[in-house]
């Protein structure tokens, strides 16, 4: 039998299938069911920094008449944060009692302020690691890319100073020199990079002239952006990689491992096909390994990364004249 175990963020996983951050794991029952069906690890839904800050501002507005009593306000500030985080911490504590697979907490953060003490609380609750989902929308004309990037490093530094469990960074691809910045992130002391987050995109309802969400779930054709960057980066960075977005079947898992990912994160396929897709994907991986005579993931991980390719330029080519010209309809 093939050994499907892998190491991710310095932690042993029984297999490389991680349930990505989402509502798929918002109760202990769901977490137990994901473990039973084969998940290698689980990332909980994110706690949003903005959620907390918004409530905080609202209560301050509502309490205008108490503005002079700062102690009282401090008490509310503390209580509000406690209420939001307590549910999250309880989920981690209870999940850790019930399952053996690693449970990662996730924080959606915009700044290095306010919330960084949460990181320590997540560690105390028993989280095996923390995923930082940082996104600063790169459409603010008043800020330079340097300023935006500096914030990422500030957040990472602050969180790393709070905890000693492994921390990973989940990012998008909106950087002007992606390779350079990913390399720099990997040298900060984080243990993992998740390539890539998938963001909400607005669509239009053209009859009612309203903004509506576009596709919430990914499609299998979205695999390739992540695949390209995993294969380019996998032996150029100093931390683990979890591939994410568009991984819907066993074949996509094999491709990402060949590109050099240590693990993959899946969300949309589980929403679409139910938890039984985990077993189907794991069976595919095992069969493929048997067919190619691999006994462990280590034997083939990264075999198709860019630096091992006979034609490394292929991995960087984006405007493929020959393919465009030969395309027939
Ligand atoms: C319903 C839903 C909820 C999600 N919630 C979160 C979240 O709380 N935090 C986060 O970092 N990503 C969240 N994501 C993004 C996923 O973790 C993942 O990065 C994205 O869906 C791409 O993976 P996929 O192609 O396997 O779906 C969510 C995705 C979906 C579909």
Which key terms come to mind for this protein?
11 helices, two-stranded antiparallel ribbon, 329 residues, TIM Barrel, globular, 12 strands, binds flavin mononucleotide, alpha/beta
Overview of the structural elements:
This protein has helices spanning 28-36, 49-62, 70-98, 116-125, 145-162, 178-186, 223-233, 250-259, 268-273, 276-291, 321-326, and strands at residues 6-8, 11-13, 17-19, 41-48, 103-109, 129-134, 167-171, 192-195, 202-205, 210-213, 240-244, 263-266. The protein is 42% helix and 17% strand. Strands 3-4-5-6-7-8-11-12 form an eight-stranded parallel β-barrel, surrounded by eight helices. A hairpin with a 4-residue loop joins strand 9 (202-205) and strand 10 (210-213). By secondary structure, it is an alpha/beta fold. The termini are far apart. The structure holds flavin mononucleotide. The site of flavin mononucleotide has 22 residues, from strand 4 and strand 5.
Task: Write the SSE topology.
Layout: E1 6-8, E2 11-13, E3 17-19, H1 28-36, E4 41-48, H2 49-62, H3 70-98, E5 103-109, H4 116-125, E6 129-134, H5 145-162, E7 167-171, H6 178-186, E8 192-195, E9 202-205, E10 210-213, H7 223-233, E11 240-244, H8 250-259, E12 263-266, H9 268-273, H10 276-291, H11 321-326
Parallel strand pairs: 3-4, 3-12, 4-5, 5-6, 6-7, 7-8, 8-11, 11-12
Antiparallel strand pairs: 1-2, 9-10
The structure holds flavin mononucleotide (FMN).
